[in-house]
């Protein structure tokens, strides 16, 4: 398999419903569902006293829980945990700004917009833009085109 | 009109937009799949329309469904259609769908090349942007080859927004089409100095990734990166560059030396933890790769360790974890710098998070040296005491057991003490491990044997301290090792007499069978040692006393239910008796007795067998006999969570034993019983009844039974037998009904005691049942209804029902019925206590005093009395012998009479019907704490639900889950053992796979279940 930094980004709720799944590596559909289920099983058993990192297959998952949602990023074991943790938080802050106090239903009903946010911040398995103002400016521009 | 219809249908189509679909799915939680399949049908209709807006809407919905895991690959062509829409909104929907659904195998991708090229060169930067984003997800080698040039051009686009995207996507293109790298690289390198920092960082990203895959080719870029590292303020870029340098330094050591300074500067200045962590990690890596070449780097190491200490002290679990992780890297090359932070790491053993504790433990293990061993071990011991979390605890003990100590004798001595100390902890599952370690060390290291033996003797002497709950937690396994070591190396014992005495204490009988067996065998070894010692000193008195001790104590083991124990004990008892005789004749026997255990056990290297050359002409792979056909064994495998089914060979006594053999065994048993004072002999008449019975299986284990015949005046003579018998049977039927009533009443009383179950569950909860039997039963005997036929019994001690209360107190309610014509009074109920079960007597009463039954019985009257027993171990069924004494008063005389009986406490009677939810049940099975066993019942001809009801009723289980002809059941003992069953049935064969944390309890419960079903 070719190597990219981020293997996939997942947003799931506690019940395991997918709210976003962005794949940066090629998986077939069955494999994707299997990964989604496995990530859910690994992440939901952990609580606040645990670290936000968990080893997963040959990778590791950096995750963070916001209310009922788990934001998970799957990366190489050698990658910098803290940087991706900051990346997740940055992403959530952008969502919060974009949707004005984001909640799970915002993500459900506007799932295609969430993909746009992801694409503005991550690209081809790399963190593309970390500046919140720049990302938000782009997003508003894109929205105005509709 | 027609227009209206068309318009209406379009409206309807538009009605179901994405929002409606999402809402619809949320409203159809019950039949989601069905709802979605109708939605997909609608979408298919929508896709057939010419209206692009409708199509885009349909594709958007499909993208959502795809995310939920539904297959939408059939719509690939429609997605391409939407992608090629000129309107940005639709184009975006099309590209999103494509990036989610397309992969290298999607054949319509080749149709997209021209469309994508058109979009890439669009004057609208957002068209270009969306095409680039989409392409990054579904680029194939073909697309990469065809579009590489276009993307390369975009790297010089006027808008940084596009340049940045193009640079990042170039990496994907390189991966799919490596030939593009050479022509594109110069331009990529230019981008490292792009005026826009975003483009710069994208270029750094791509080059770092490329370099990581093949560092050698990128060494020449090091000065450029070095400049970037010292000038950039973007943490993300810095992290990337530092990571890259980490990959480059092994190839170019000089680079490492140059790096240390800027890295330490960053460590000092940065406030971003992620950057700090990356720097520390890289410094460590650099120092490791340079360890020989740079003598003066202790300052850097100190700095790293200091910073890591700050991370570890932080309240954030993540930082703590990473700090410990990095610390363990330093430990490998600079153990001394880490050792000074021992205090901090020991603190982490108290952390709430198990993964942090494990990290800390890992570090501690690496930190141990001869000097600080004692201190660390002592601290660890403290922590073992309060450790939470089973994995952690086991790991902790594992560390203590196998890792910490391995070299010098001194350490081994300490090791033995550690092992002994470990045994004091309750709740460890490592009993086996500790035991085998003890054996291993004692056998292999001669120098420490004396010490080990002394420690083990102490352990045996204090065994009672361990005995609290040891049955359950497996720590008693160490006694196995202790007994063996003391026996085998008994010459090292200071006071073999005392140890011998300790090994023969009555309490030993509560230990598991295999341990008792070792006790018995090694008692004999000790005996040999004692004999030799005393004979040398011509102190015949002491030797004889020892023999006497054995003769007195061994019968306890001869009675053991465990075959191994019984056999060894009988052998040794006879031997000792013989020796005793010889001793009385002043014959010297020590030599001969010692010869029994002569020879030393030498450890065999694990590889020893391999070293034996294979004799010529011996083919180890050839079959000696033809293998049996596989057809019979392979077809029915039980579920994986349960153990393999027990093969029939292990319990031959239940199977093909022919009639003659049965008769012979029956005769032998009777003979033995007749000679054994502990058996209550059957009266001749009851003997006759047995002979009439169909087979040995029908020797009674009775629900209701009588005892020795009473010679009561005015008793009916045997010629009246037939008539009486008939009357009695009728009476008994009535009695049984009464019993049912009784049970119901009992049940209500019980409701308060365990109020956990809901009302409905109570209905199938029977009162716990304890039977009285007259005879010691052979294990395979079947209970039968027609065995309580003794005509001579006037007084019937009827049903005994036990109520199990909290802890291990058992209330047995006994119904007394007077079946004679005489008046009975002054009844006294007495039971011969066993080690395990004791009748609770009022204060001040002696241990052998009987309890007064608080009523008198006129002829034909029955009444009930309750007695409390305290039971220690509930893992084995118990039979208690007892007597009822009473005065029979008739018109002209009164006589004192006595009735013997046996109380049978089945293991089932210790189980309480406890409901269990399937998830808790599954967790229990997964925990791995349970031992398993299984049972097969042939020819059970009853509906499955009857079968389950029977197990529920007779054995106090509750059904957890039932699927077709398979059900999981659960029950709990009064001491909290979990018992899980998986019952399956097929063709009159019932297989029960069972799991329980106490194997002997499990075995006995299964035996009882088997009996229940052999009755029908």
From TrEMBL, chain A:
The lineage of its organism: Eukaryota, Metazoa, Chordata, Craniata, Vertebrata. GO terms for cellular component: AP-2 adaptor complex. This is AP complex subunit sigma. GO terms for biological process: clathrin-dependent endocytosis; intracellular protein transport. PROSITE patterns: CLAT_ADAPTOR_S. It comes from Pygocentrus nattereri. Pfam families: Clat_adaptor_s. It is a peripheral membrane protein. Residues 6-145 form the AP complex mu/sigma subunit domain. Its main location: membrane. One of its GO terms (molecular function) is clathrin adaptor activity. Adaptor protein complex 2 (AP-2) is a heterotetramer composed of two large adaptins (alpha-type subunit AP2A1 or AP2A2 and beta-type subunit AP2B1), a medium adaptin (mu-type subunit AP2M1) and a small adaptin (sigma-type subunit AP2S1). Interacts with CCDC32; the interaction is direct and mediates association of CCDC32 with adaptor protein complex 2 (AP-2). It comes from the Eukaryota. Keywords: Cell membrane, Coated pit, Endocytosis, Membrane, Protein transport, Transport. It is found in: Cell membrane; Membrane, Coated pit. Belongs to the adaptor complexes small subunit family. The keyword DNA repair does not apply.
Automatic annotation (TrEMBL), chain B:
Keywords: Acetylation, Coiled coil, Cytoplasm, Golgi apparatus, Membrane, Phosphoprotein, Protein transport, Repeat, Transport. SMART domains: BLVR. GO terms for biological process: anterograde synaptic vesicle transport; Golgi to vacuole transport; neurotransmitter receptor transport, postsynaptic endosome to lysosome; protein targeting to vacuole; synaptic vesicle budding from endosome; synaptic vesicle membrane organization. It is found in: Cytoplasm; Golgi apparatus membrane. It comes from the Eukaryota. Residues 657-805 form the AP-3 complex subunit delta domain. GO terms for cellular component: AP-3 adaptor complex; axon cytoplasm; endosome membrane; Golgi membrane; presynaptic endosome; terminal bouton. Its main location: cytoplasm. It is a peripheral membrane protein. Residues 738-753 have a biased composition (Basic residues). Transmembrane segments: none annotated. Residues 620-692, 721-766, 779-798 are annotated as: Disordered. SUPFAM superfamilies: ARM repeat (SSF48371). It holds the Pfam family Adaptin_N. InterPro entries: AP3_complex_dsu, AP3D_dom_metazoa, ARM-like, ARM-type_fold, Clathrin/coatomer_adapt-like_N, Mu_AP3. Residues 779-790 have a biased composition (Acidic residues). Coiled coil: none annotated. Residues 636-672, 722-737 have a biased composition (Basic and acidic residues). Part of the AP-3 complex, an adaptor-related complex which is not clathrin-associated. The complex is associated with the Golgi region as well as more peripheral structures. It facilitates the budding of vesicles from the Golgi membrane and may be directly involved in trafficking to lysosomes. Involved in process of CD8+ T-cell and NK cell degranulation. In concert with the BLOC-1 complex, AP-3 is required to target cargos into vesicles assembled at cell bodies for delivery into neurites and nerve terminals. PANTHER family: AP-3 COMPLEX SUBUNIT DELTA-1, DELTA ADAPTIN-RELATED. Belongs to the adaptor complexes large subunit family. This is AP-3 complex subunit delta-1. It comes from Pygocentrus nattereri (Red-bellied piranha).
């Amino acid at each position: 398999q070719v190597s990219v930094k981020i293997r996939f980004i997942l947003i799931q709720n506690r019940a395991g419903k997918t709210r976003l799944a962005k794949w940066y590596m090629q998986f077939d559909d069955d494999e994707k569902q299997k990964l989604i289920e496995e990530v859910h099983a690994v992440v939901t058993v952990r609580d606040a006293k645990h670290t936000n990192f968990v080893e997963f297959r040959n990778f590791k998952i950096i995750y963070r829980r916001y209310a009922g949602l788990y934001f998970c990023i799957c990366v190489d074991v050698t990658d910098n945990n803290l940087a991706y943790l900051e990346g997740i938080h940055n992403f959530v802050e952008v969502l919060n700004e974009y949707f004005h106090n984001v909640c799970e239903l915002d993500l459900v009903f506007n799932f295609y917009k969430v993909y746009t946010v992801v694409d503005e911040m991550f690209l081809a398995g790399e963190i593309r833009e970390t500046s919140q103002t720049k990302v938000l400016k782009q997003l508003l521009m894109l929205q105005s085109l509709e | 009109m027609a227009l209206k219809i068309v318009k209406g249908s379009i409206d309807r189509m538009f009605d179901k937009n994405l929002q409606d679909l999402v809402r619809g799915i949320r409203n159809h939680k019950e039949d989601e799949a069905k709802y979605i399949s109708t939605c997909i049908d609608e979408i298919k209709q929508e896709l057939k329309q010419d209206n692009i807006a409708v199509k885009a809407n349909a594709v958007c919905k499909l993208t959502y469904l795809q995310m939920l895991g539904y297959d939408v690959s059939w719509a690939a062509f429609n997605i391409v259609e939407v992608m090629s829409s000129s309107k940005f909104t639709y184009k975006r929907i099309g590209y999103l769908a494509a990036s989610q659904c397309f992969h290298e195998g999607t054949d319509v991708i080749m149709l997209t090349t021209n469309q994508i090229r058109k979009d890439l060169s669009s004057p609208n930067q957002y068209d270009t942007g969306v095409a680039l984003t989409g392409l990054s997800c579904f680029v194939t080698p073909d697309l990469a080859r065809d579009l590489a040039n276009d993307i390369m051009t975009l790297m010089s686009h006027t808008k940084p927004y596009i340049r940045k995207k193009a640079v990042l996507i170039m990496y994907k293109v390189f991966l799919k089409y490596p030939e593009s790298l050479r022509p594109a690289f110069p331009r990529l390198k230019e981008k490292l100095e792009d005026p826009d920092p975003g483009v710069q960082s994208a270029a750094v990203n791509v080059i770092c990734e490329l370099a990581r895959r093949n560092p050698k080719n990128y060494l020449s870029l090091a000065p450029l990166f070095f400049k970037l590292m010292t000038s950039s303020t973007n943490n993300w870029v810095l992290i990337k560059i530092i990571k890259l340098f980490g990959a480059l330094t092994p190839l170019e050591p000089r680079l490492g030396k140059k790096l240390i300074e800027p890295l330490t500067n960053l460590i000092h200045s940065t406030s971003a933890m992620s950057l700090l962590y990356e720097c520390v990690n890289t410094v460590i890596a650099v120092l490791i790769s340079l360890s020989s070449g740079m003598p003066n780097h202790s300052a850097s190491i100190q700095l790293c360790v200091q910073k890591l200490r700050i991370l570890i002290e932080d309240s954030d679990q993540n930082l703590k974890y990473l700090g410990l992780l990095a610390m363990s890297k330093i430990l490998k090359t600079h153990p001394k710098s880490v050792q000074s932070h021992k205090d901090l790491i020991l603190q982490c053993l108290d952390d709430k998070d198990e993964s942090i504790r494990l990290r800390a433990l890992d570090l501690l293990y690496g930190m141990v040296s001869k000097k600080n061993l004692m201190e660390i071990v002592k601290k660890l011991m403290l922590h073992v005491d309060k450790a939470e979390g089973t994995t952690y605890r086991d790991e902790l003990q594992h560390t203590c057991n196998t890792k910490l100590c391995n070299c010098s004798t001194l350490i081994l001595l300490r090791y033995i003490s550690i092992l002994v100390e470990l045994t004091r902890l309750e709740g460890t599952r490592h009993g086996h491990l500790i035991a085998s370690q003890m054996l291993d060390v004692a056998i292999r290291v001669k120098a420490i044997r004396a010490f080990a033996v002394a420690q083990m003797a102490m352990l045996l002497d204090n065994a009672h301290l361990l005995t609290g709950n040891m049955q359950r937690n497996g720590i008693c396994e160490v006694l196995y090792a202790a007994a063996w070591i003391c026996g085998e190396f008994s010459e090292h014992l200071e006071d073999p007499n005392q140890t011998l005495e300790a090994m023969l204490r009555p309490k030993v009988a509560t230990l598991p069978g295999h341990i008792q067996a070792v006790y018995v065998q090694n008692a004999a070894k000790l005996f040999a040692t004692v004999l030799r010692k005393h004979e040398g000193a011509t102190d015949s008195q002491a030797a004889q006393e020892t023999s006497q001790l054995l003769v007195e104590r061994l019968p306890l083991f001869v009675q053991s239910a465990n075959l191994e124990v019984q056999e060894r004990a009988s052998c040794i008892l006879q031997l000792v008796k013989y020796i005793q005789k010889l001793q009385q004749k002043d014959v010297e026997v020590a030599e001969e007795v010692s010869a029994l255990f002569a020879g030393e056990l030498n450890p065999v290297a694990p590889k020893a067998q391999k070293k034996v050359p294979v004799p010529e002409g011996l083919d180890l792979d050839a079959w000696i006999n033809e293998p049996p056909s596989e057809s019979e064994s392979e077809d029915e495998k039980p579920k994986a969570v349960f153990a393999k089914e027990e093969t029939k060979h292990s319990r031959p006594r239940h199977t093909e034993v022919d009639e003659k053999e049965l008769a012979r065994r029956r005769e032998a048993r009777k003979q033995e019983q007749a000679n054994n004072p502990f058996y209550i002999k059957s009266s001749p008449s009851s003997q006759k009844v047995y002979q009439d019975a169909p087979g040995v299986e029908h020797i009674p284990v009775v629900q209701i039974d009588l005892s020795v015949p009473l010679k009561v005046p005015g008793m009916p003579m045997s010629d009246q037998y037939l008539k009486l018998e008939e009357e009695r049977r009728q009476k008994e039927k009535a009695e049984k009904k009464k019993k049912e009533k009784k049970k119901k009443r009992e049940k209500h009383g019980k409701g308060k005691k365990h109020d956990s179950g809901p009302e409905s569950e109570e209905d199938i909860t029977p009162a716990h049942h304890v039977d009285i039997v007259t005879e010691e039963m052979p294990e395979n005997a079947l209970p039968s209804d027609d065995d309580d036929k003794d005509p001579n019994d006037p007084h019937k001690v009827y049903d005994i029902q036990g109520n199990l209360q909290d802890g291990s107190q058992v209330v047995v309610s006994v119904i007394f019925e007077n079946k004679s014509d005489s008046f009975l009074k002054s009844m006294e109920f007495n039971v011969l206590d066993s080690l395990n079960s004791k009748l609770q007597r009022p204060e001040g009463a002696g241990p052998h005093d009987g309890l007064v039954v608080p009523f008198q019985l006129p002829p034909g009257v029955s009444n009930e009395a309750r007695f409390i027993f305290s039971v220690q171990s509930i893992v084995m069924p118990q039979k208690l012998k007892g007597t009822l004494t009473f005065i029979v008063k008739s018109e002209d005389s009164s006589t004192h009479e006595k009735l013997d009986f046996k109380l049978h406490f089945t293991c089932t009677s210790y189980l309480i019907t406890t409901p269990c939810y399937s998830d808790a049940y599954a967790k229990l099975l997964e925990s791995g704490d349970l031992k398993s066993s299984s049972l097969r019942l042939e020819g059970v001809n009853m509906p499955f639900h009857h079968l389950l009801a029977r197990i529920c009723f007779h054995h106090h289980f509750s059904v957890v889950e039932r699927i077709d002809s398979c059900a999981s059941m659960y029950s709990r003992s009064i001491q909290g053992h979990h018992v899980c069953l998986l019952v399956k049935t097929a063709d009159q064969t019932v297989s029960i796979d069972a799991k329980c944390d106490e194997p002997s309890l499990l075995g006995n419960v299964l035996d009882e279940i088997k009996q229940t079903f052999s009755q029908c």
